[in-house]
């Protein structure tokens, strides 16, 4: 569910921070840039874990700021494929179900990932799963505010290119799965 993602990026430190501790300023800038943000094919970034490598800074002639290449690890939320999660139904529509994990409200389950056979009830804006039980058809209704369990199905890759500040490259170098 939680991973440590090893990332590499260039941190820009504005001249007004030149007198401060470099490590603390880099940590602050990385948390400001990534914490509580979704990074494509990495996950929801939560907090900086540690700095692995801080390369030598150089001053840009364009903006007068320090530019420092850093390698770091970030704690990220990224469920494993098939991992069962517990969430609350935020809304239902003909295209699927939106679910909240309490700390993250943007989980979306599309129609093709719902149990089959399922149908949408337009009058009550809810989904109904029709399943066979002892030769009869039983119905399980999924309404707003219901607590449901669902499995993660998104395939994650180990390498991703992500365009950040001034088209620099952010690369996922490796990841370390496990519960933290």
TrEMBL record:
Q: Does the keyword Transcription apply?
A: yes
One GO cellular-component annotation of the UniProt record comes to: RNA polymerase III complex
Q: Which residues form the RNA polymerase III subunit Rpc25 domain?
A: 83-150
Source domain of life: Eukaryota
Spell out the Pfam families in the cross-references.
RNA_pol_Rbc25, SHS2_Rpb7-N
- Provide this UniProt record's keywords sorted from A to Z: DNA-directed RNA polymerase, Nucleus, Transcription
Give the record's family classification: Belongs to the eukaryotic RPB7/RPC8 RNA polymerase subunit family.
Q: Which GO terms describe its biological process?
A: transcription initiation at RNA polymerase III promoter
According to UniProt, the name of this protein is RNA polymerase III subunit Rpc25 domain-containing protein
Q: Where in the cell is it found?
A: Nucleus
Q: What is its main location?
A: nucleus
Q: Among its keywords, does the record have Transcription? A: yes
What region holds the RNA polymerase Rpb7-like N-terminal domain? 8-63
The record ties this protein, via InterPro entries, to: NA-bd_OB-fold, RNA_pol_III_Rbc25, RNA_pol_Rpb7-like_N_sf, Rpb7-like, Rpb7-like_N
């Amino acid at each position: 569910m939680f991973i440590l993602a090893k990332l590499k990026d260039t941190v820009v430190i504005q001249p007004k921070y030149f007198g401060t501790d470099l490590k603390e300023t880099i940590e602050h800038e990385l948390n400001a840039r990534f914490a509580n943000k979704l990074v494509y094919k990495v996950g929801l970034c939560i907090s900086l874990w540690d700095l692995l490598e801080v390369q030598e800074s150089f001053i840009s002639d364009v903006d007068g700021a320090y530019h420092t290449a850093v390698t770091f690890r970030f704690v990220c939320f990224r469920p494993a494929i098939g991992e069962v999660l517990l969430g609350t139904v935020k809304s239902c529509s003909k295209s699927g179900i939106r679910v909240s994990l309490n700390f993250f409200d943007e989980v979306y389950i599309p129609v093709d990932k719902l149990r089959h056979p399922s149908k949408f009830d337009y009058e009550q804006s809810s989904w109904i799963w029709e399943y066979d039980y002892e030769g009869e058809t039983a119905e399980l209704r999924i309404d707003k505010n219901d607590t449901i369990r669902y499995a993660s199905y998104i395939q994650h890759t180990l390498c991703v290119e992500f365009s950040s500040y001034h088209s620099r490259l952010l690369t996922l170098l490796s990841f370390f799965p496990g519960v933290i």
